[in-house]
Design brief:
Elements: E1 8-9, E2 14-15, E3 20-21, E4 26-29, E5 48-49, E6 54-55, E7 60-62, E8 66-67, E9 72-73, E10 78-79, E11 84-85, E12 90-91, E13 96-97, E14 102-103, E15 108-109, E16 114-115, E17 120-121, E18 126-127, E19 132-133, E20 152-153, E21 158-159, E22 164-165, E23 170-171, E24 176-177, E25 182-183, E26 191-194, E27 199-203
Parallel strand pairs: 1-4, 2-5, 3-6, 4-7, 5-8, 6-9, 7-10, 8-11, 9-12, 10-13, 11-14, 12-15, 13-16, 14-17, 15-18, 17-20, 18-21, 19-22, 20-23, 21-24, 22-25, 24-26
Antiparallel strand pairs: 26-27
Length: 210
């Protein structure tokens, strides 16, 4: 192994059995926050990795993150504090999962997907490469007490490559957001939406449902 490429595992981290850690990954690092950060709160507990978890080279999993059994975190991915990821889910290469995100089981986040803070992702959701979720309608100029709110992705919905989801939108169960769409309003269950802004164009056919 090249010098300096060993995994860095911070004290207190809880590792299940058969956990595989790639070169130079960092597990359990405490978050470093800017003054006044909306992510501030009580100190997170230790990072917890379930049985059979794999973390790729150069990936970072912060303290307070919880990865279920069999999760895969790809090379150079980033998983922040107080985030939970269900069993069998995959965080692709370079994907970023921000603080206080809840991700279900068997979710697939592809290369460079961005999951913003306070997003909910239910079981069996697919998020294609480069898709972006957002949580701040003011772009950093919120008033006092104005909360951030990420999207909610219901069970088995699919988000296409490069799609953008605005704060607080809900994508319904088994819905499909086309590549490059900008979702500005809730998407009904089983709807296929596309365009800028995204509009319903048809329904997901029976043969594509999980």
């Amino acid at each position: 192994m090249p010098p300096g490429s060993e995994p860095a595992v911070y004290p207190g981290t809880v590792l299940g059995s058969d956990v595989r850690l790639g070169d130079g990954c960092v597990i359990g690092k405490p978050p470093v926050l800017a003054a006044g950060s909306s992510a501030a709160g009580e100190q997170p507990g230790p990072a917890r990795l379930g049985d059979g978890v794999s973390v790729g080279a150069g990936a970072v999993v912060l303290a307070g993150a919880e990865l279920g059994d069999g999760c895969v975190v790809g090379d150079q991915a980033h998983v922040r504090e107080r985030t939970s990821i269900g069993a069998g889910s995959v965080v692709g290469r370079g994907a970023s999962v921000e603080n206080d995100v809840r991700i279900g089981e068997r979710v697939r986040l592809q290369t460079n997907a961005y999951i913003t803070a306070w997003t909910v992702v239910e079981d069996d959701v697919f998020v294609a490469p480069g898709a972006i979720t957002t949580n701040d309608p003011t772009a950093g100029r919120r008033g006092p007490g104005q909360e951030l709110r990420g999207p909610t992705l219901r069970r088995a919905c699919r988000i296409g490559a490069g799609a953008v989801l605005l704060p607080g939108v809900e994508v319904g169960e088994e819905a499909f957001v086309a590549a490059g769409a900008v979702v500005t309003a809730d998407v009904p269950a089983r709807a296929v939406v596309m365009g800028v802004p995204a509009r319903v164009v048809r329904q997901v056919p029976e043969e594509e449902l999980l």
